[in-house]
Amino acid sequence: xxxxxxxxxxxxxxxxxxxxxxxxxxxxxxxxxxxxxxxxxxxxxxxxxxxxxxxxxxxxxxxxxxxxxxxxxxxxxxxxxxxxxxxxxxxxxxxxxxxxxxxxxxxxxxxxxxxxxxxxxxxxxxxxxxxxxxxxxxxxxxxxxxxxxxxxxxxxxxxxxxxxxxxxxxxxxxxxxxxxxxxxxxxxxxxxxxxxxxxxxxxxxxxxxxxxxxxxxxxxxxxxxxxxxxxxxxxxxxxxxxxxxxxxxxxxxxxxxxxxxxxxxxxxxxxxxxxxxxxxxxxxxxxxxxxxxxxxxxxxxxxxxxxxxxxxxxxxxx
Length: 318
What we know:
13 helices, Helix-turn-helix transcriptional regulator, 3 domains, Arc Repressor Mutant, subunit A, mainly alpha, transcription, 70% helix, Sig_transdc_resp-reg_C-effctor, DNA-binding
């Protein structure tokens, strides 16, 4: 059931459950225990060491489809990662075996069609297990590495995103076969209907889980990756400048003049006219500057010029 309310930190936790009892499963995956009385969401989360912003983002998305917009910096990746890991554990170790037992009890073991249905369910369960184990073995460790400032250049979250396919096709097929073709005697009918209801709930949960990964988890990891890339570029420029200060091959006075002219936005021809040298000489100086400093971009040269007091920062167009 959709409830158009956007839940906030000062709402009572019990109200969220009253509006949607499916929230009970989410509590367990965040590691939130029951017995919180009439406390607010913020109070419960703080007492049980769960990031309130991330909890509410998942809740509002799960209950109303409201994915957070431009909120990547506020979400706790460790909290989101714990939620996804706990969701996998619950689904693989409880939900899949539970539904199989339920389905087996609702079917007649002596019926060939019933055995085929169980085989179809097992194929679906194996597909889900492979999908989730891939995330546990590759994606989650990669993210944990990022959180510990260890960047794996051989992998990124877009690699996961491109192969993050829906895995509920066999489940839809299974439901349709049971509804359309499976004969059932009266004493099994209620049990079969109850199992079908759980299969439908199972399908909805899988869709929601995939959307949380696609619309919340992947964007927040991509944002973290971009921060590392920016920091890496800055660190490289700083190391280049530091190497030059610590005894790298020094620039000549004329090369420093060329750097200043480049920072001021002059073309090769303008630099040649300004310094009364040929264009070919300017090109040679630029080649030597790049070799000595290992800096090739205008931005990098500008930083070098400012740090080494060749230009005043107030005179530079940033």
